[in-house]
Design goal:
This protein has helices at residues 10-18, 30-40, 50-56; strands spanning 4-7, 63-68, 77-82. It is an alpha+beta fold and 92 residues long. A three-stranded mixed sheet has the order 1-2-3.
Length: 92
C-alpha cells in the first residue's frame, strides 16, 4: 500500500511536530477524494462519494501519513500514524 503524502505550510508543519496542532484538515474536493479513495483501498465507483464510503466503514484503522513542508522530494518531512474522520475544520 502506498503512503499518502500531504504537503503543508511551515507554520502548520512546525506546530504538528511540536504537538501544538493535533489535527490537519483537507477540504473535500475531487482531488482529495480521489487520493483518499485510492489510499484507503476503496473500490473505484462513481455511484458513491468518498463520504458515503467512509460512513459505511465502522472505523478506519490508523495509518501512516507523510507530512511534507513543501512539494520538493527533499523538503523536510515526517511520518505520523493518523486516523481519518469527516468533520468541520476550524478557520484559525
Amino acid at each position: 500500500m502506498k503512503m499518502l503524502t500531504l504537503p503543508i505550510k511551515k507554520k502548520w508543519f512546525d506546530m504538528i511536530l511540536s504537538g501544538k496542532k493535533k489535527e490537519e484538515y483537507r477540504e473535500i474536493k475531487p482531488y482529495y477524494i480521489t487520493r483518499f479513495v485510492k489510499w484507503l483501498g476503496f473500490p473505484k465507483t462513481e455511484e458513491k462519494t468518498v463520504l458515503e464510503l467512509m460512513r459505511e466503514k465502522e472505523s478506519i484503522k490508523p495509518r501512516e501519513i507523510a507530512f511534507r513542508n513543501g512539494y520538493s522530494a527533499d523538503s523536510p518531512s515526517f511520518i505520523a500514524k493518523c486516523t481519518i474522520k469527516i468533520g468541520m475544520g476550524r478557520e484559525e
